[in-house]
## 1
Amino acid sequence: MYSLLLGLLAAVLWGLHDFTIRSIAAGADAAALYLMVLLFGGVLLLPFAALSPGWGAISAGVLGFCVITGLIYALGVYALYRAFIIGPVRLVAPICGAFPLLSVGFAVARGQEAGAVVWLASLAVLAGIAIVAQGESGATQGSRRGAITWAVIAALGFAVSFEMLHQAAEQAADLPVTLIARVAGFAGVSVWVIWQRIDLKPAFAIWPSLLLMGALDVGGMLAVTIAGGFARPEFASVASSCFGLVTILLAWRFLHEPLTRLQAFGAVVVFGGIAVLGLV
């Protein structure tokens, strides 16, 4: 139950975070935006993590594991930003929200039981994603293909990094693990920004929104990490994937993005399947 509640908290935080992306993303490069978000989130987390008594459990192996986790998570979020810049929320969010399929698969590999209901719900998620993607008509074929590709990369990045965060949280304290992963992600994105000579000025111009996004992003990441200390941590990944539903509804209500009946049905199928996975 605690894992599920932490996942729902993460879903709300990330849903608001992704809605903010869609509202401000047009004026800056995705890497520049996320670099600022990582910086602000890390600064907000630092005083709490510094006071944590769990640093003694951070061995060299755990440190390296957290660094790799942070880089993979950063790749997933960067891909999410790229997907939201290219395509509409109603197309991107359900695809990104499908990462619990891999989370459940990881749990099965660790020895958790998965019956027919789990696999039927998983098939429902895949079918719903196909419906939403086929129903999209607001973008050109090229932009739609690019949005789908980046959304798939984001889903893979989330699934793998969340699994690794859960494993790290079983060996060390939540706050140090989250901070190390975030610093590693910041370093990785910084290298990319410098290598590509990406202009940071457009991102600096909207720093208040990025500060909010940093707080929302690190809050969701911390909630999923904490779930690693409770039973069935994969439920947190499943529940957190409903962030897409929050984002879609906010975009429909405030950005006036159209939502066809077919796409609404597909989204319901996706998130209905996710909900069933979370209750198994």
## 2
Amino acid sequence: MKKTIIFCAGAPLAYVDKVKDVQFPILVGVDGGTKILIEAGYTLDFAIGDFDSTIVPQAKEVIVLPTKKDDTDLQYALYTVLSQFHLDDIEEVIVLGALGGGRLDHLLCNIWLAFDVKLEKWFPKLHLVDEKNSASFYLPGTYSLQKEEHKKYLSFILMSPVKHLSLSGVEYPLDKKSYDRPRSLISNEFLENDMTFSFETGLICVMQTID
């Protein structure tokens, strides 16, 4: 049975209600995210962080990081936990609290996880989620995408040059449009409950958002 790993960072909008949608998840509290999960009544499989602003929590496995380090607590948690699982045994990797919290540098760092060579094989399964936004990463191919409940807008963030991008089933379709540099194509909308997109080269972050 494939499992879902949920990482919870410490942003105020961690959206822990998402945990209820997942059956038998592996829960990872990341620094301040440990407190958020515990206060929501969950038992942690892992607690990872420097815990410089909170007490060290209880979990099945606790890893205390130094305060001075090259990687963020979330990066270290992803490297450490994902290394213990085979790619085919994991359905998806959900990260809560990575899209908000007020620090723009943290937000950009988390989006740039898609370029982290240590996570390269994992990022097609990586989903960053909060109460109002979701972000997923795609390599070249053809995909069918479902509209998420209450999410109005659909945006395609081209994180590299992209060749022959096509969008169908949306308000603003494209037919094999190429872009020679990164570009943000935001505020598109589903015409129905699903849409299809494809592209031949590049890397795309797809976001669904609430107005």
## 3
Amino acid sequence: MKKIVVTLLSLVLIGVMVLSACTPAPAATTVPEVEEPEAPVAEKYKIGILAPAVTHGWVAAVAYNAEQRAKELADEVEYQLYTSTNAEEMTAQLDDLLTWGAQAIVAFPQWEGMEVPIQAAIDKGIVVVNFDISINADGVYRLSGDNKDMGVQGAHYIVDKIGTEGTVIMLEVPTSGSVSELRKAGFVETLAEIAPDMEVISYATQFTREDGLVDMADILTSHDKIDAVYSMDDETSIGALQAIREANRTDIKVITGGGGMQEYFRMMPENEDIWIQSALYSPAMVRDAFDMALSILKGETVEEVVIIPTTLVDRDNYQDFLDENSPY
């Protein structure tokens, strides 16, 4: 009997072992991978740039500096740059920027006739920051040099060099709008105060060295004695200086300028018989105009008009303003 019981127990144990071997192990639990959500792409501000086509180096440097600043802010800004040759072309480009979805526009409207299209853009909620030029539009922001003070400083400089009497040729550029108007007003009003006996003869020209050369050559044939030239732009002054040299004139003791052109700076110590002056008006200021537009879009408070003070450059301090990396 015991033998039978042992045998049965053995069989039971063998069966249990067989069943255990045949029973599959429970499947491992697979935890599904959870994909992390992608970080949202920050929306960039859209800023358009409107600049004149290149008429001389200063204008070229304005477009260059504006675009460089836009590239430096590429993480925050999308931009489009247009250059134009007249008000009609710039107006069409302004419309293109609105279609593109520009939220702000940095404009350098060098011609008359931009008041209406810029006002229309502002009325649509577009931020407009004018660089350099003052126009009659409600709600426009502006950043520029002190055009009127350039004229004031030019008058003081000439009187300091030649005294309160003499003949001064004023090379104005009526087609440049407020730029020429303000520089002329500062010059004429200041001379009336500090040198009322000074004779001022006005000639219309352009902000190019070619026009400065041609117009100054004509002026020199009409006037035997000139004491100074009030020029509003470095490019114009370079052309006028060439005409003076070619005519072998030694009566002119002063010529002013404006802009901050490196070539003009380097001419200053080379002409000891004539004082060459420039009222610094750096094209790099447009970077600040671009920053102003971005600040407004971010909701920051900025001044409606920002004026950069005038700095005079001549042979005594020109070395402080030389910049080999300047495109102008």
## 4
Amino acid sequence: MNSSLAALANILRASSGLSAKRDIALAAERLDVSGASSVPVGDDCAAIPDGDGYTLFAIEGFMNEFVAGDPWFAGWCGVMVNVSDVAAMGGRPVAVVDAIWASGEREADPVLAGLHAAATAFGIPVVGGHTNLKTDRSQLSVAILGKAKRLLTSFDAKPGERLIAAVDLRGRYREKFSNWEAATAAPPARLRADYELLPAIAEAGLCRSAKDISQGGIVGTAAMLADCSGVGASIDIRALPKPEDVSDERWLLTFPSFGFLLSVAPHNVDGVIGHFHRRGIAANDIGVITADRRVAITAGDASEVICDLSVTSLLGCAPKGVAA
């Protein structure tokens, strides 16, 4: 197991999904956005106090090859991943706007069709955007507004808390990309109720810190959460909720359509997991939040450090007073 865990660790350290997250640090520094909102930069959404909770504001841009290779699903994801960002902060979506570039109407049509299908399924209005059909390639970006009564953030994970992974396994890979797709065929009422779980957990006071599993996969997302909170994480790969016929290597590099990490006090673990299980969503305790700022994977007595955030910050947004 030691040699296979070491090989898996090498793959994760070299993954593009993890390394791409370092781009955030450059943008945050150049734009001088530190302190621009009540939740520091590095979270899933900006959170702006509005007198009755928080207005949430987020945006997602999509890889050119993804938009070109699966345009309908790219449009669908334009809504879905933004809904996940809002949910990860304990919020509910309000409305989206899109920006689309294409070389003509024919190229734009499947992207817009996917976006419209998702907006309908999630019950979220598309209220505006930007369109340019005279460019040399397809590109897509979608922004969202949401509302939260009580926040979940990436900055409140504490050493000793348990790391919970919740993933909807009722799906399949949408080849050729490593996207686990469990949404497009789901009944819309079920989709909306599933995403209601996160604000319900936040409002019940069961959790204060969460993040949606993104292109960085489970370990990359855990590293982002740990970086923001100035902590580390130890992840037991044997405890991962995952499809039976998928390898650890592929699963840890997968972007699930419904996937969240939550940092939960030990006495609330059963309650949080129960919320997901009652809706047919797989959820497990996969490890512990640590104080050493190292993100590691484990299997039995074997352990491999994926990144040491005390040496190099991933996002460049560690809390003040936490050296990197």
